[in-house]
Specification:
The complex is a heterodimer of chains A (299) and B (254).
Chain A (H helix, E strand, L loop, with lengths): L1 E5 L2 E2 L2 E2 L3 H10 L3 E7 L11 E5 L6 H15 L3 E5 L2 H13 L4 E9 L2 E6 L4 E7 L4 E5 L14 E4 L8 E8 L12 E5 L9 H11 L2 E4 L1 H5 L20 E5 L5 H7 L4 E6 L12 E4 L2 H12 L1
Parallel strand pairs in A: 1-4, 1-6, 4-5, 5-11, 6-10, 7-10, 13-14, 13-15, 15-16, 16-17
Antiparallel strand pairs in A: 2-3, 7-8, 8-9
Helix pairs in contact in A: 2-3, 4-7
Chain B lengths: L1 E5 L2 E3 L21 E3 L1 H17 L3 E8 L3 H11 L3 E6 L8 H12 L6 E5 L10 H9 L2 E12 L2 E7 L4 E8 L2 E5 L11 H7 L4 E5 L8 E7 L8 E3 L3 H14 L5
Parallel strand pairs in B: 1-4, 1-6, 4-5, 5-11, 6-10, 7-10
Antiparallel strand pairs in B: 2-3, 7-8, 8-9
Classes of the chains: A alpha/beta (299), B alpha/beta (254).
């Protein structure tokens, strides 16, 4: 079996997740063929063939054409990308050109059957693609990263320009006042807090514990807290000693950002909320009653 | 500018999902359904563009069973001009490639300048239909939009990447943009607009997928609860006492 693993370049840097793509291929016993599009001098370490294209980092039509070119030459069984903003965008374009067989955000694979999460993590499904080339995107952290070893043999792939679409620049959201990635304790507010006025009681608990205030994405999207507080794959990735999740159901993007915390305590009315998969303790309660009571007890 | 917004009606994610043995989809009876959250941002973006551009017509489309008409009616009440239901009772069980082809078959000859969608559904969560559709109708497409500006012939988008980074992208029409949460603040329909929506054009077209499935769901069910949380239940005082003692044991409080 052969797996074409496609790395990603952001701001001239090769994403570290290339090792996870290799780890996935190794778990299947598949021969990896690498492909990196976008201008970078960085190279992954592995034994095998590595196709290199130099051009814009985000140029979907050009990247699709280059991938199809390599597919034509290598005839892989699988095309593998991370379920990142890059893989999210490129994978369906490749699948659309090769028969529509794509499995998104795969968490495991066994005997050609792929496991995926659905309904906000409350359900999972096992899916078998129809015969033919299959495009797969991997959930971040689902497959152990292969150790960097060896030097690939490089080949160049033509990368045209993308006439109809242009990457004009990058912006970083304003520098954060809080740096959650270094916090020892975090108390986070989720949609379950109900309304912006209730953020204060989460802050009170954080203060009583000497913790920083975090949040899930919906709270930031609603404007209840600034983006610097957001924990998750599109916010901060954190690993504090204590993480208390208040009213957070546990979308995969949030779990990806906090599951490495040492002790996770969730407070939720729904004991089946997906956060219970990563939490050691689940307080089944109305947080509007529990949080102030805990704060009081800690004073 | 002709704008198409593609939406899906999904079960409320707070639901308790039940999957029958051997079934490939959850039981729908007794569940509440609503517009897929991501798609609400797409509807709002279209309605805002119409207001800023002046000359624009917003069509909202859903491929789904009869119940999806409620989602379309809400989109009309939010400000879309007309609705199209591609009626297929089996649509929720169809894979992304089949659904994208159903929509493309209808949408391609219509000549839309801009197609807006959510970036994924909350139920299946594959994030494929949108970009498949862009490829099938030959539109320039971009995903994960957290900011959007449109002028005749040209679209500017900020794409959300990881760690708070955004890529700024410009593309020409016809274009397709998939919307990330937080793109705007979706409005609630007002009562007068709900009444007005009842008079807006609503077309139902029965469709059947001509394509074979690209994938087969062999099993659906609850995730294995390996390492599942210990539940702390009971009365409030005992719950507080238990959490305080855990924090003390771990030396997280004095």
């Amino acid at each position: 079996m052969k797996a074409l693993v496609i790395g990603e370049v952001v701001q001239g840097k090769l994403a570290e997740t290339f090792g996870e793509l290799l780890g996935f291929a190794a778990s299947l016993g598949a021969e990896p063929v690498g492909l990196i599009l976008g201008d970078t001098a960085e190279r992954p370490g592995f034994e095998g063939l590595l196709y290199i294209g130099t051009g814009a980092e985000y140029a979907p039509a050009a990247h699709k054409a280059a991938v199809l070119d390599v597919i034509e030459q290598e005839k892989p069984d699988l095309v593998v990308l991370m379920h990142s903003a890059y893989g999210w965008d490129l994978a369906p374009r490749i699948a659309a050109a090769t028969g529509g067989r794509q499995l998104s955000e795969v968490i495991s694979v066994q005997d050609g059957v792929f496991r995926q999460s659905c309904c906000n993590g409350k359900l999972q499904r096992r899916v078998k693609p129809a015969a033919g080339l299959t495009v797969v995107t991997l959930q971040s952290g689902a497959f152990p990263s292969a150790a960097s070893a060896g030097t690939p043999v490089e080949k160049t792939v033509e990368q045209s320009s993308d006439g109809a679409l242009k990457l004009t620049g990058y912006i970083q959201k304003p520098a954060a006042k809080v740096d959650l990635s270094k916090a020892e304790k975090i108390v986070s507010a989720g949609r379950g807090v109900g309304k912006p006025e209730n953020i204060a009681m989460i802050q009170d608990l954080a203060t009583a514990l000497g913790a920083e205030l975090g949040s899930s994405r919906p709270v930031v999207d609603a404007g209840w807290l600034g983006g610097a507080h957001q924990v998750g794959s599109t916010g901060s990735t954190v690993s504090p000693k204590l993480y208390i999740a208040c009213g957070i159901s546990g979308a995969v993007q949030h779990l990806a950002g906090m599951k490495k915390s040492e002790l996770i305590i969730a407070v939720n009315k729904d004991k089946d909320a997906p956060i219970s998969e990563v939490a050691q303790y689940m307080v089944v309660a109305d947080l509007l009653e529990f949080v102030p009571a805990l704060t009081e007890a800690l004073k | 500018m002709k704008i198409l917004v593609c939406i899906k009606q999904v079960a409320d994610m707070e639901s308790r999902f039940v999957v029958s043995e051997g079934a490939s989809w959850f039981e729908e009876t007794d569940l509440a359904f609503r517009i897929n959250e991501y798609d609400e941002f797409a509807i709002e973006a279209a309605v805002q563009l119409k207001a800023s551009l002046g000359e624009a017509e917003v069509t909202v489309l859903s491929a789904g069973p009869q119940r999806a008409s409620d989602a379309l009616k809400k989109a009309l009440a939010m400000g879309a001009d007309k609705a199209v239901l591609l009626l297929d009772p089996e649509a929720p069980k169809k894979d992304s490639w089949q659904v994208a082809n159903l929509i493309a078959d209808w949408a391609k000859p219509q000549g839309f300048d801009l197609v807006l969608t959510g970036m994924q559904s909350q139920d299946r969560g594959s994030g494929q239909v949108s970009l498949f559709l862009g490829e099938l109708i030959g539109a320039n497409s971009v995903s994960c939009a957290v900011a959007l500006e449109a002028s005749p012939g040209s679209i500017k988008v900020e794409r959300e990447l990881e760690g708070g980074l955004r890529a700024q992208v410009e593309l020409s029409t016809p274009a397709l943009v998939s919307c990330q949460l937080g793109l705007n603040q979706p409005r609630y329909p007002t009562l007068p607009n709900i009444m007005k929506a009842k008079k807006k054009p609503f077309e139902t077209i029965e469709v059947t997928a001509a394509l074979d499935p690209a994938q087969e769901v062999l099993w659906m069910g609850a995730p294995e609860k390996a390492g599942a949380a210990e539940l702390i239940e009971g009365d409030l005082a005992s719950q507080v006492e238990r959490v305080v003692s855990i924090l003390k044991d771990k030396k997280l409080v004095g």
